[in-house]
Structure formats: C-alpha cells, structure tokens
Amino acid sequence: MAIIRDVMPAFDLLQPSSAADAQKLLQEHGSDAWIMAGGLDSFDWLKDRIKKPKVLVDLSGIDELKGIRVTGDGVEIGAMTTLTEVAEHPEIRKNYSVLSQAVSVVASPQIRNQGTLGGNVSQDVRCWYYRGGWPCYRAGGNICYADTPVGRNREHAIFGADRCVAVHPSDSVPALIALDAKFVVQTSKGEKTVDAENYYIGPDLDITRINMLQPGDLLTAIRIPSTWAGATFYFEKVRDRNVWDFPLMNVASAIVLSGGAISRIRLAVNAVSPRPMRLKNVEDAVVGKPADASTGEMAGKLAVQGAVPLQFNAYKIPLMRNLVKRAVCGVAGQQAYGALTGDLDTQEVAWNS
Amino acid sequence: MSDRNDLKSGENPPKTITRRNFILGVIAGGAAVGAASYRFLAPRGRTYSTGERLITVNVNGKPRRVDVMKQETLAWTLRYKLGLTGTKLGCDRAECGACTVLIDNVPHYGCSVLTHTVRGRNVTTIEGLASADGRLHPVQQAVIDEQGFQCAFCMSGFLMATVGFLKTNPNPTRKELAHGISGNLCRCQDYNKILDAMMRGAEYMRDGIPAGKTLTAIAGNPAAGDDATAALARGA
Amino acid sequence: MAVTNTKTSQPANPNDRVYGAGHKLVGKNYTTPDLIAKVTGTSKYAEDFRAEGMLFCRLVLSPTPHGRIRSIDASDALAMPGVKAVLTADDIPAQADYLNDNGQTIKASKWGERALTNEPVYQGDPILAVAAVDELTAAEAIERIKIDWEELPFVIDPLESLRPGGPNPREDGNVWTRPKDHPGPPELTKLKWTEKDFEDYRQGKLPMGEAPDTWSYGDLDAGFKNAALVLDESFITPDVSHQCLETRTAMAYWQNGKLYLHTGTQSTAQTVPAIARWMNMSPDNVVLISEYTGGGFGSKVTGTVIMIVPAILSKKLNAPVMMRISREEEHFIGRARPSVEGRVKIGFDKDGKITAMDMFTVCNAGAYDAASDGNTAPRIASLLFQPPAMRWRGVTVMTNTPTRSAQSAPGGMQAIGIIEPILSKAARKLGVDQVALRRVNCPEGKAQYGPPNKEGKRAHTTSCFLKDALDRGAEQFRWAERVKQPKRMGSKARGVGVSLSTYVGGTIGFDGLMVVTPEGKVRFHSGIGNLGTESVIDVHRAAAEVLDVPWDVCEVVWGDTSRVFPYTCASGGSQTTHAMTRAAHSVATECVQKLKEVAAKSLGGSSDDYEVAHQRVFRKGGGAGLSFAQAAQKAIELGGIYDGHEAPPDVHKQTKQAVGMLAGRGLVVSAKDKYPRDGDTYSYVASFAEVEVDVETGKYYLTDFLAYADVGTVLHPRSLGGQVLGRSTLGIAHAIGQKWVLDPEYGVTVAKRFYQNKPPTILDVPIDMQWAALDIPDPETPVGSRGVGEPPVGGGCAAVLNALSDALGDEIFQRAPVYADTILASYEAGRPMQHPLMANI
C-alpha cells in the first residue's frame, strides 16, 4: 500500500451534549471510537492517516465539562476548559500560579485558545519514529527505532524506559503533580479519582497506553486541593524555540517554608521519562533542610541517580540536575530564566538590576 | 489533545441512543453554497443524510449555509466552499498560523477546527476586516503605512491574530504584542517590520488615524470574495 | 498630525532614517501597488485559482532512500469512481537540451532530476501522481496502489561515502568532478579516500583526502611561516530547508495548444523557458501566471519539477489540474541549502591580519545535480577576508538526501559560518579587539578576490565601503561599551559578536521595456518575479525619476506572461535591484530620447532642441511641446521604431518578441543595459549580535542585533530594511536552530515537522532588531544601487556564533546550529561533546 499523508480519512462525527451521553457513545462504539477534545493531537494522527477511527466523539459541545469552579477546598477545572482560560483565571493566578505559568508556555496562543487541560494531560508521546508511523513497540511492533546505536534520540528518555524511550511531553502535568491535583475519571462503574501522577501508565505496565483510561472511560475534571494554595512555586520549561516546541524538559515544585527550612514540598519533572515523574525521593530528602544552594545541589544530584542516557541525550542529566536544584532552592535569588511568558522582560530586569 | 483511543470494544453496550440525538443545531434543507470546485466532493458509497451535512456558519457577519463533510476543517470550508481564499494553508498542522481566523473573536487555526464544531458561531476572516463601505480596518491601514510583510502569505493570519489579541489587550507593549501574535510564522522573517506595522495598527485602533492620513478605501466587497480589489490593486 | 500620548505611542523608530538626498523618488518610502490586494486577502496565489472541472492531484513519494521500482499496480485505484489518472515516470518527457544566450548547447544532464522517477534516489523522491475529482479520493486511491521495488545501497553522509569501501549513492559514483579532457558540467565519478586520510576524523578534524577541485594564489608557505598565530579548525554548517510558507503549488490547463500555468516563482520572464525545457515544448506556447509568490529564498528561481506533473496530467485529461504539495512533501521536494563541512587553516600576524588561508570543503550536494556551494564558498572567503595567499580544495559529494538548490547566499553563508568563528578565536588568542581584527582584514574599494584567471589577473569588485559600515555599526551598537560589560551574572553568560558579510550584488546586460500610452500613462513591463522583496516595483522608481514623472502616472505590469515582458534576469542571486535598475534606467533614458525625436518630427527642429519634464516634451527654454499623451499618439502615427513595429537591434530576442506584441499601443520603448562596469558587483554587511546564555540549562536568547549594510544607493528604505533584517534572520536560523534530522540506519528524515526542524519564531529573535544602510552609491552603475537579498545572511549566522563563543569560550561547539544540548553537555565537560562531523542529529 502506497503511503499518503495530509488528507483526513472519512469518519462519522458524533457530538454529544452531555458527559453521560459521551460516555454511552464511547461504550457503544468501543474501539471504533476516538475521543476528541481540543483536537490538536487528534488531527495529527488523523491527517497522517495512521489512525482511522470509524467515529469521532467530539467533546466540544459538552458545557458541563468546561469552566473553572472555586470550591470550598480549592478549584475544580473541567477537562474541556481551554488552556487560555486556565492561564488567565484569577484564582489560579493568585493561589496556584505554578499552573498558570505552566500552561502559558504550552505551544502557541492559538493552540492554548483551543487546547484543553484534559487534552494536554492526556496527550500522546511525540517520539518522531512513533508519530511518523514506524511500527515500533508502542505501535504494536517489536522494535524501538530510537534506542539503537545510531537512532536519533536527543529528545528521549533518561528514566523509566522499557522497550519504549519516548517521553511524556505535557507542560501542565508537572505543575498539577506539584499541586497534588486529582483527576476525576468517569468509568462504567462510576466515578474514580486518582492522584495526578497515578493517571499515567509506563511502558513496563502497558506499552500501548499512556494513561489509565479504559474503553468507555472519560476524564471529566481536574481538582486542585487548597493544600498548596499560595505556596512558594517554581516552574521552568526548557525548549528549543520559544513558541510551539515541546519541552526538552520542564520542572515544577510547590514548597512551604517554615523558618527558612522546607517543611513541605512536592516536585515533578516531565520529558525525562515515558510518564511524568514525581520525585518523591528528592522531596523526602529535602524536607527539614534549608531552601538554599547546598540543599539544591544535593537534590539535583539525588534526582539524576539511576539516569540512563541514550546516544544523544546525555545533556538531560545536567539539565535535570540543574532544574531540580532550582526548583528546590532557586526561588530565592535565581530568577526562572525563560520560563515565564514574560521571559524577555525577566531577563532584562535581571541584567539591568 | 490526546484523545488516545485504546478502547477495547466493550461487551454489548446498550444501544439505546441514536446518533441523531447528539447532533446539535443542524439545519436541514436549503441550497448548499457552491464554488467552482470542491476539494472534497461527496464521498461515494457512504450514507450521509443531507440534514447532517448542511449547516449554517456565520461568516463575516452573514449566515452561510454550506454542505460540509464530517472531516472537513474550517480552513477548507472557507477556501473551497465559500471562496474565501484569503485564509491560507501553510502547514495544515497548527504550526504556522497562516490559516488563523477569529471564532467568536478568539484566534484559532482554521486548519485545526472541524467546521461542524462551529455551527452557529461567528467566524471572521481577512475578507471581513474592512468595513462595509470598503474602508480598511486600522490594522490593514497600518500595514499599508509601514510596508509590513514581504511575500505576505502569512499576512492574513497575522492580521487576524493581531485583531484577536488587541481585543484582549488594546494597549500592548511591543513585547506583549510579540507574545500575543507568536503563534504565527513568517518565513520571510520580516518579524521586525510586522511588529512595527501591528504596533501602528494598535495605535490606529486606540487613537484613530492621525490627521493627514486617511483610510484607504477599496473597491468592491472583499468579504464576498470579490476580485475587483485585486484587479484594482494590480493596476489592471 | 494628531498627537498621541498613550504609554505605547510608538517612539521614533531608529530604523526610520532619511535616505534619498537629492532624489525625488529614489530612497523614499511609498506604498507598493500590490499591498492593498495582499492586505485584504484578495491577492491570488497559485492555490487560490479555481477553474470549472478542476481536478486535484497528489503525489506518492519514495519511502526508501534508494531503490528501483519493479512494478506499479494501480488497477484497484483506477477502478475507483472519481479517479482520473495515474501518472508515472514513463509518462514524463525527457528534459530537452537547450541553447543558451551564448549559442552553446547545454545538454540535459543524465543525472538530472525529473518530475517522477523509477529509480528514487532519496526518501521523498516523487514516484507517481494520482489525479482525481478531489483530494480525498486521490488519497484513498493512492492507498490502493501496490508498488514493488528493490532496495539499493544508499548513503546520507558524504564522509561515509568517501571512506574506503564506502557506499555510493548511485551506481555511477559519489563525487562530482569537472571533466579534465573536455569542457562541460561536472560529471559523477567514484572517489574513495584512504584509511590514513581518515585518521583525523577521530580527533574531530575533517579528513582531507583527494579533492577534485582546487585553486590557489600567493605564497601560502611564506604566509604561514610569518604568522604569529596559526589556527586549524573544522566547522560544519547545517542542511537547511527553504520552507517557503506557501507550499509548492501549480494549477495547469491547456487551451488551443497553449499551456496556462498558475504557480509561484521568483522569476516571471525566466521561468517560461525553464518550463518549456522540462516539458520539451516551445516557450511560445507557455503562459505563466504568477502575480504573488509565497516565498522563494532561492528555491523557486525558475521552474521546478512540481509544475510539470499538473501540466502533463492536465494535457492527458483535458481538464484543469491543481497540485498543492503538503508541508511534509515540502520538506522533501521543496529544496534545501547543502551542508558544507569545512576545515580551514589560517595564519594571523600579531594584529590579527591574515597572512595565509588554506581552506578545504566537503559539500553535501544531495541526490541530483551538483550544488556549487562548495565552489562559491572559497571565493566569498577570499573577498571578505582578503588573505594575501590562499588555497582551496573541495569535494562535492552526492548523497541519497533531498534535492538541494541555491538558498540565499549559497556558499557565502557557509564560508562565513565556517571562517568567522576562527577569526573570533584568533582575536581572543591574540588579545585583539574583534572589530579591530575585522577592520584589518576588511576588503575596500576595488578589492581583488579569487584565483587568477588564465591571463594571471584576479577579479575585483566595483566598490566596497564595508569598513565604513563596520565603524558606523560598531558605534551604533555601542560595541566598545558592550565589550566592557561583565560577562557573567549568576548562571547567565553574556557575549557579543561581530561578523563581516558579503555576497554577489548584481549582474548587467538585461533589457527594459515600457510604453507611454495615449492616455498619458507610463507603463513599465516587468519580468521580475513578485515574492515580496518589491524589487519588481522598486526598480522602476529610478526610471520614473529619469522621466521626471510623478509616480501616480506610472503603472507596473507584472506576473502574467501574456502581458509580455522584456529579457529579465532571473530573480535570484541578489542581482535584480542592480541589473534591473540599470535596465530601467536605460529604457527611461531611451524613452526621453524617443520623446524628443517624436517632438522634433512633429514640431520641427532637432531632438536636441527639446527637453522632457512635468509629463511633457517641449522646446528648451519653453515654447511648443507635446504632452506625454500627445507624444504617444504621434508615436503611433509615426510607427516603426516609435510604436514598437520595429525593435532596437541590440535587445534580446525575448524583448523583440514582447515589443512586437505591444506594437501600436503608444510610444513603445525598449533598451538594453549597455552601461559600462569595471569590476564585479558585491554588497556587504557588518553584523552585530548579543546573546545571553543560561549555562545551567543551555538555553540562550539573542538579545540584540544590528545589520549595517553597504548596498549602494538606497532605493526603497522599508523594503530594504525588510530584506536586511529578514535575510539576516535567515542566517541567524542556521546558528540558533534550523536543521535536518536523519536516521542513518534507514537513510530517512525523522524531523519533518516545524516543531522538529525549527524555523525561527517571532520570539526567537530580538523584538527590536536594528538595521541601517550607508547609502553610498556604487560608482560603477547608474543610480548606484546594488543587490541586497543575500549579503546579510552569513553575517546573521556568524555574528550569533561569535557572540556565543564570546560568552562561553572557544571549546563548546564546532558546528551549527548551536542548541541547549550542545552548550550544556560541552560546558559541563569543558570540551565539545558532540562529534562535530556527525551531522543531522
């Protein structure tokens, strides 16, 4: 069969107006169905004609999945809320700014106007072999093209590889892990709530799945508890171009200080492993220590223990070490560089001061 | 967004719902809008009811009834069904911004929106920027005054992104504007001059056109896809 | 003027300077006549055209880097309703030999590219095309086509091909060699280096084996012997795709045996003969419509293969056929700049003056015709850095990678990118200021360059004022202040860089064509392409000035060859502004003469008794005269050489044909540019950049940039500024990010998307870049304008590279682009961590 790209195959488009209807449709159509939220990831698969679902279930008409509610215990964000809305929401900017920072550097303004938080956290990996339609492990084959002596793997994993060395590319997830967010999933057996970091499945468990969603399941909301409201936050994304590009790596932390020492901390990185990583061992090691350079150095070194670089991504080890260092101590004195949407302003302030 | 679909088929789900129930706002009947050529014609051998394909989209202030395939993107509909070729396709992958249009005043990539998802919503394209009497939009006038852009294949996308951004921030700094329109790529790399022109456009929108400069009036109505303007501009 | 006083009321733009002293039109900003259509979205690019019954066409590209098609079974596809035709290589005519303007027959190359092939030589080489009623049908049809092929050996890295026993990209060989026994274009031959040649490879040095191309001048040995410092450095420049925003598109239909082709091209007049050659048909039967083109940068100089597929399908099916290729296809068949691997040994005296330069290049030419970037590079180096003694050796290697073509400053960008970082290193080692080191090596005036010709004479330039640009640029950039600023602040390192830059700036000998109409209008017929540089319009401002007519009575006709054009340079190689300003000046001068003659014939006296001003020709000192409208009417009455029934004998045959088609429309004037010129025309830029690097993440920002141009007289400031900064940024892209990524095991591209091959965004460059021009006329051309498109490119790239090494030290990178990963890994280790000769990662 000759290969042709860039023409979407025909499908039937189903546009439910309630979450319950969406779920019923998904259960009815099973593996013939494809869920579409903002569509930015979906369209790539479809336009490449690598995926040809019979029906597309479009969630954009379900109002109950949209919007941000301030609750007694934090905020609840509908899965279909756009990234722009998340970035600009006053309560999130005020008390959970690590999330507004993170979603502000996703892709481009138009993509943030359309892409949803549910979509961003549920997106597929971006390994260029896998996305190029190569029959790799993740695509059901029996080889990884990126993990060969000459495979091009600059952007691939240094942790958690198991046959697949792709990394999870989301910018919002580390911030959500830092905030101890809970993902609300509707299943055929009712509602399930999972910790952000547990939403994901590594290739060791199931190489063809990114997250826990089973057929008929639907991610409906993300709840952020007030536990970390107003904490000291850090977020930084390192990428090649300042628009569009996925992270080479990102880091997020939430810290509560007490008398100069770290009393509580949550810390996560992404684009280092097939699933977003919460660095629990680092968190445990720094609690009770001062949030200073030496704690940061120690945290950075601890974070990269066990990292296994590939041919072209050894730089990710010092990158992770340094980002973790900053996320632990860097808030004082070390302005996040290039991480904010106002990055150009940030750097000038730094130089002019 | 992801939307991975690893759904293993569930066992005999109840078939109590018909697809019909989930189709919102479909207008049945009436004539479809035609163009000389369609990129997508009706697929053969598939069953689509007219009612499911014929929809109404408000484009540049007018309701347009149009026959749209399920997988058709807004950029295709505009270009191939409605004759509005000012919206360009540069990558078809949400990576260049040439297809940027406003949907309810918010900039979107027309290549990455299914037309069926904008039923009843307001779409604005480059052809809808000038006023009904043919006077240019201030942002268009600013391009004229600053000689913005080179090959201009990216121009309509940049203008739509700017107009959308200025609705949320009418008085931006140059940096804020650059961030606001950063979802658009210019391969002539005329970014500096584009920012000059778009800053001028923001100024014109806030303060009006300075005395001594008048808005350029154009012939014909570009919103209707009129070619007269192009002919005029060429000096034909 | 209304006073605006809001916080963002724009301050005076530093780039808005006053040019054009002593001129009425030249050097002034104005609104180009294509702008209103562009700004309203009504300008029609190729894919905006529609025709009744139009069919659509999609290509099938080769999945393998080298193979031979055994069979194609398209029966299932052709059986589908709506599928109209499948076109294969067997349907493509052989490219015709052609006669060039010197009367030489140029044989079509046996290794040349055709529109479709049965032996794909790179992944992405088009194999077949399907025409159908719509694209969806075409796509579904393609998925029912069975192609059986055999895989053949391939190689994507030129050095691998040169290794002993290394694979050849084609059976005939791997290296382009100029035949020694007969004149003619380079031929494909086999060349392998020895194991000993490759010993340097392990040290990260470019091996230097046998090189088919070489030249030299001066005493190289003495130069090195007398040097205070000798550096021997390898540096690699990237393969970079043009990635025009408009993907290649053509719509074709036939009427009465004529081919009508709507497409995008840089040139208008010169594209017709190219298409005729591809189609093996007469240029008289080709009508080209290309009023707007979505970018070119050298990839659309004349005809390209994609125009041929819809043209042939349309003929076969007797229906209009549209083909717009996708962005992914654009990566493969949309052309790219070849990577050049360079090794240069340079001797410097204690002040940094170059005493000798020994340059070696390996050019990755792709799978079709020889790219000449490797050959151009040393000439540019010789001009820009003025070594008193120089040798160049070069190898141009064929690989199974996508087709290359000229890209803004072909060879020049690579030469400057390779050599400038060595100059920066030398300045640091010698303790000489970077600007001062450039100053002592800077070309000036009628600068000599390149190897001597058979008569022992070296070529020289028409003029060069680059030293002035360097000095003024350094002042505007506050260079002296900036170099004194601290280099480190926390994890951030700051660096500033300067680079010299040059490229060719113009040709001569083309024709102008204009009509003064009976309505009194002045109409210029321009065969220049319109890709947004505005030279298609700008050059005629000089003619209007000669005629002393207000701009609003002038019209420029462009973009549709049925409206007839004179012999025009190809719109590439930065030649247009120079060549066609001369042609416009010639024809306007000739028009003045013809107006005087018409007046003398109508009103008596001799032509010398008359003068032309204010849209009239009249007796000197006042008295009887004719308006332009009346003169045009008289010209029609006079006929012959006045109304186009007779063309001047010395204009090109293309122009003669055009004149004939305009006969009787008014005063029809054509003229050949016969102005003398001593030397070759080049333009120059001094480029300055500042970067800030976060050494803990490798992330860096370009925080400031200035390009100071020596491009002769400024014709149109705003379009010049767009060119200077736009092409600077094209160069900057080579330093900061644009690249190819290929998997060598399979010989295929993995980075096909923008987020993977990384063309710069608006946030990757400073938000207020600066440019300026000296505005000193070139003495060897009327009006004094030189070309501008390409000269800024190399400086854009090298100024950034030099700023990076200023911030980080010399041992961080040996190839471009420089990424966070390069910086971070090397900075940690204190030495380059990526093997510099391993490309396309």
- Based on helices, strands and strand pairing, what is the structural class of chain C? alpha+beta
Radius of gyration of CA atoms of chain C, rounded to a whole number? 28 Å
What is the percent of helical residues of chain B? 25-40%
Low-confidence stretches of chain C: 1-9
Kindly identify the CATH topology of the domain at 138-218 in chain B: DNA polymerase, domain 1
Helix content of chain C: 25-40%
> What is the CATH H-level superfamily of the domain at 138-218 in chain B?
[2Fe-2S]-binding domain
Quaternary organisation: heterotrimer
How many H/I helices of chain B? 7
What's the level 1 CATH class of the domain at 138-218 in chain B? Answer: Mainly Alpha
Amino-to-carboxy terminus distance of chain C: 55 Å
Strand order of the largest sheet of chain B: 2-1-5-3-4
Description:
The complex is a heterotrimer of chains A (353), B (236) and C (841). Chain A is an alpha+beta fold and 353 residues long. Chain A has two domains: 12-62, Uridine Diphospho-n-acetylenolpyruvylglucosamine Reductase, domain 2; 66-122 and 167-352, 2-Layer Sandwich (Uridine Diphospho-n-acetylenolpyruvylglucosamine Reductase, domain 3). Chain A is 30% helix and 19% strand. Chain A is built from 13 helices and twelve strands. In chain A, the strands form three sheets. In chain A, strands 4-5-8-6-7 form a five-stranded antiparallel sheet. In chain A, strands 9-10-11-12 form a four-stranded antiparallel sheet, with helices on both faces. In chain A, α2 links the parallel β2 (33-36) and β3. Chain B is of the alpha+beta class. Chain B is built from seven helices and five strands. Chain B has helices at residues 50-53, 74-81, 138-146, 155-168, 174-180, 191-207, 228-233; strands at residues 54-59, 62-67, 100-103, 106-109, 122-124. In chain B, α3 crosses α6. Chain C has 21 helices and 36 strands. In chain C, β23 and β24 form a beta hairpin. The chains are: A alpha+beta (353), B alpha+beta (236), C alpha+beta (841). Chains in contact: A-B, A-C, B-C. Chains B and C meet through α3, α4, α5, α6 and α7 of B and α1, α3, β27 and α18 of C.
Key attributes of the depicted protein:
heterotrimer, A: 353 residues, alpha+beta, Uridine Diphospho-n-acetylenolpyruvylglucosamine Reductase, domain 2, 4-stranded antiparallel β-sheet, 13 helices, 19% strand, globular, disordered C terminus, C: 841 residues, Aldehyde Oxidoreductase, domain 3, Aldehyde Oxidoreductase, domain 4, 3 domains, 21 helices, 36 strands, disordered N terminus
